[in-house]
UniProtKB/TrEMBL annotation:
Protein name according to UniProt: glutathione-specific gamma-glutamylcyclotransferase
InterPro entries: ChaC (IPR006840), GGCT-like (IPR013024), GGCT-like_sf (IPR036568)
Native organism: Iphiclides podalirius (scarce swallowtail)
EC assignment: 4.3.2.7
Sequence similarity: Belongs to the gamma-glutamylcyclotransferase family. ChaC subfamily.
Lineage: Eukaryota, Metazoa, Ecdysozoa, Arthropoda, Hexapoda
Keywords: Lyase
Reactions listed under catalytic activity: glutathione = L-cysteinylglycine + 5-oxo-L-proline
Class of this enzyme: lyase
Coiled coil regions, renumbered to chain: none
Amino acid sequence: MENPTEINHSGAISRIPIKVENDELTRKEPVWVFGYGSLCWNPGFEYQQCVTGYVKGFSRRFWQGNTTHRGTESKPGRVATLIEDNEGITWGKAFLIAAENHAALPYLSTRECQLGGYRTYTVNFHPRPAPIATSSSFQQDNKDALLYIALPENRHWLGAAPLPDIARQILECQGSSGSNVEYLLKLADFMREEIPEALDEHLFSLERLVRKFASDMKICLRTLMGETERGEPKREAKPPPPSFQFASRVPDKKLRCVNM
């Protein structure tokens, strides 16, 4: 197992003494995990609490390949990762894992790292401000959270491409967890339903293109979403949000790699 590393805003890498044992951080307290992809709508593990919020200094991009959940070795799908962006923020959901829960982090290590090609870091998570002041101070407190990011050196990396090419690839791919389209559209739905005021130009542009290409090619999105097989009623398509960026200037950021 590689030694843990810290990546700071200047790009320097230094060693951090974090103990790792049996794919589980040795800990006596609960730990937060921040999700910005499928974890937002399909965490797959038990948790004590979930909170919508964001991380600063990053933008979400569909630049990571996937050959298990949303694609195959011969036809990899595209899933989200984060890239460093001084003016960016990424919205998602953080989950609180109890100290006595020793199954969640190994599960995530398998799902995200071993199968997905991601690495584990810690990052500062900002809970969404409560609309009405309450006696609880939690909503106003930032938290350290584990975060999974795919870097260009991993074997599944696909990198940047013209948005129409990415959209066509997403439309064509499917894996053991379902279609690549389902991943994209459920993430877009999460953003609209949970954080309607926050925009993600990359995500919503891909959604618009996938819907357009599916319509042009007479591809049934309900089938790709698995709705026909489950006999679910047809849902009204939600209009994509306006096309402009949602960003915040944030000059500093720090990640600590724990390499689970």
